[in-house]
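STRUCTURE:
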């Protein structure tokens, strides 16, 4: 019985590897982001900042550091693991040929939606101070899904292009692809945020049409620089950690 269990686990390990790699990469990402922030924020030099009501959001973030690392680990394990599994199945159905952008986006959409719905209960439980707009799953899932689709669908095509067409080394290609992934992660999520911010009294579609007619298409990308600064570094760190974990 024990031997059968060991053989079964060994046989299933290749299918579990993407999920383990994704979780380990996210854990390293969380340590890189949260630990330095918490160390600086809780230093004696910033004691007056912690007591100020103006910095309540930073207090919430600092207190949620351990929970944030756990949430990132679990959610990224699902996101990257499912994305890699779907890509492998799609590549096999393509007879080993590279996926098209449409196929990459489809894999990213499925993995991104699954991760968004999975992570929402943990985020809402750990951060009860979230604004009222974010107390239901819809807005969170839509924004999170946009970020996930943008970052997942753009990474591998960018990596192939920079490595094969531009002749960059593997490390430089991965760095460039992670930057492109961060850009599209922000670009795909900020329009959703802008629509949801003005959709309290109507449907999202009606709000999007009003914004398009009154302010033009560029209005959907208002606040892009702030969104890129918010999601860009974590996405780049996650891809860098993921690629290095896969080499182990």
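SEQUENCE:
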């Amino acid at each position: 019985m024990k031997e059968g269990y060991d053989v079964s686990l060994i046989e299933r390990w290749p299918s579990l590897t993407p999920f383990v790699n994704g979780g380990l990469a996210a854990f390293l990402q969380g340590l890189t982001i949260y630990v330095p922030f918490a160390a600086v924020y809780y230093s004696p030099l910033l004691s007056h900042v912690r007591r100020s009501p103006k910095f309540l959001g930073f207090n919430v973030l600092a207190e949620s550091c351990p929970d944030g690392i756990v949430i990132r680990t679990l959610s990224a394990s699902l996101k990257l693991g499912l994305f890699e599994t779907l890509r492998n199945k799609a590549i096999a159905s393509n007879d080993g040929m590279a996926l098209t952008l449409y196929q990459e986006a489809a894999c990213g959409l499925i993995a991104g939606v699954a991760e968004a719905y999975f992570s929402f209960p943990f985020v809402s439980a750990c951060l009860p101070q979230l604004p009222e707009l974010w107390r239901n799953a819809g807005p969170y899932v839509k924004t999170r899904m946009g970020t996930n689709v943008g970052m997942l669908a753009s990474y591998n095509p960018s990596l192939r292009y920079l490595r094969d067409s531009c002749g960059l080394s593997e490390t430089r290609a991965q760095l460039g692809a992670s930057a492109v992934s961060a850009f599209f992660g922000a670009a795909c999520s900020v329009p959703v945020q802008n629509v949801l911010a003005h959709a309290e009294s109507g449907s999202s579609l009606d709000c999007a049409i009003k914004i398009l007619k009154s302010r033009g298409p560029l209005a959907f990308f208002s606040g892009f620089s702030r969104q890129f600064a918010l999601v860009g570094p974590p996405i780049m760190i996650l891809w860098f950690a993921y690629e290095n974990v896969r080499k182990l």
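REMARK: The first helix runs from residue 2 to 41.
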